[in-house]
Amino acid sequence: MTPRVSGRRRMANLAGRAISQGAWVILAVLMTVQAARASGLDQLHAFLEKTRSAQGAFTQTVVSRDRRSTQTTSGTFSFARPGKFRWAYEKPFAQLIVADGATVWLYEPDLNQVIVRKLDAALGATPAALLAGDNSLERDFTLVASGERDGLDYVDATPRTSESQFTRIRLGFSGDLPRKMELTDAFGNTTDLVFTDLRRNPALAPSTFAFAIPAGADVVRSP
Predict the structure, then answer these.
(1) Which is deepest, 30, 86, 175, 211, by most CB within 10 Å?
(2) pLDDT (average), residues 55-80
(3) CATH number for the 40-222 domain, one of 1.10.8.60, 3.40.50.300, 2.50.20.10, 1.20.1560.10?
């Protein structure tokens, strides 16, 4: 004899089936959205293809290998491809790095000292140079999409040569623009950069990437 099911129980079963079906629909939609989302590697390629120049602000935190020492600085930056950039630390102390496509100047106002070097010797040695370089990242780095975290899509970049001062670079993207950069050096120290107020392809005056050595400054020329 088939047990009788009350109207209330029948309604509960129907509601349960509706909720279950609804959950499957939501899951299917989420899976579709995730599949359609551009990977960090796709966004890196789009950034390189679409971006001739950019400017914005940054916060930089350097953490020692033993995690006992941290240093936080902030400032502004501009770059124009290939090889032109202006990276200005403002807090807690001033420091300026300028490249005009051939030469890089690193100016320490407190010491009134300028270090001058060729761009090819400095390329890849600073976050600014990485952003402002040409589209040869895949030549110099092995690039792997490394998933999503905290709303950003990441790319891991491993140098192809042991001469690089970094053992790993991780770039986080959103909207085809870099929002975060994590660098690990050969000593195990990490540098985390967060980019804000980022503008793509602004009109930048040529003077942005020019540097005049201050009178009386100590000049050190590095190969």
Answers:
(1) 86
(2) 92
(3) 2.50.20.10
